[in-house]
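Reopening this ticket.

The earlier resolution said the output was attached, but the attachment link was broken on my side. Pasting everything inline this time so it's all in one place.
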Amino acid sequence: MDKLTSMNVFVRVAKVGSFAGAAKDLDISRAMATKHIMQLESELNTRLFNRTTRSLSLTEAGEEYLERCQQVLLDVKEMESAVTKLQTEPRGTLKICAPPVIGASHISPALTEYLKHHPDLSVEMVLKGGQVDLIDEGVDIAIYVGQLDDTSLVARKLATSSQVVCASPDYLKYNGIPQDPEDLESHSCLINWAIPPRNKWRFKGILGDRIVTVSGRLQANMSDPIRNAAVNGLGIIMLPRYIVDPDINEGRLQVIMEQYGTAPLEIHAVYPHRKYLSAKVRSFLEFMQGWLPGSIGMNPP
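Inline output:
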């Protein structure tokens, strides 16, 4: 028999002063109430009640056990209440991992606004590129940009971002402006291999999709090095608009081949479990789905 149930029956019998009254309160039979008490007495090897045909009273051991049972049942109730609140109200610590650029430029401002609405929640944010072991690193949510190769991951699409091909005005002045995707094969193309496929750029046109294998003098697993290199005239880049729009607006980079569409980047939130999603994870996912589409160059999922 369940020990906590038996303890609850014992406390009720002690409070009411009868098996019949306790059984009625708990909506069980008198025989079942008696069985629970007898089970406890057998396990404890001691008598909890003094029984006569007219009265029922606690033994000395019963009085001690009653005090302890009440505390245990109260602790269990408080524990269940705390766990339930974690499922219904955002609280505790939310650990988020995101690529440096989107993390600093879009996730960080979102977090600032999000935390204003949830005073019982704190956030630990890690900015890093590449794959993240969610379980080993204790990460609640990781933000991924690009194609998800691991189909075992639980993911929710937050937004999509358009990509543009661009270079500095100086680079284009001295090296010419490519007109077609195939022209890129003779140019220095700077590659962010954190966004797959590593060195293959996909374009869309009236004749269908065209994939060009590109190469150049610099490759990196983050966007900042190649964006900076492009601004300084080292080559052509294909990056999301949310990364390069400030440079384009200030004239440091110039968009080229706008007549060709590029494959949009999907932005996902990845988390370890689908079942029993905590309130802090669930509410942040919902918040980000409303926030990111309003950011530069992003669209709803």
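Reporter confirms the inline version is readable. The two ends are 51 Å apart (CA to CA). The chain has three domains: 3-88, 92-161+265-299, 163-262.
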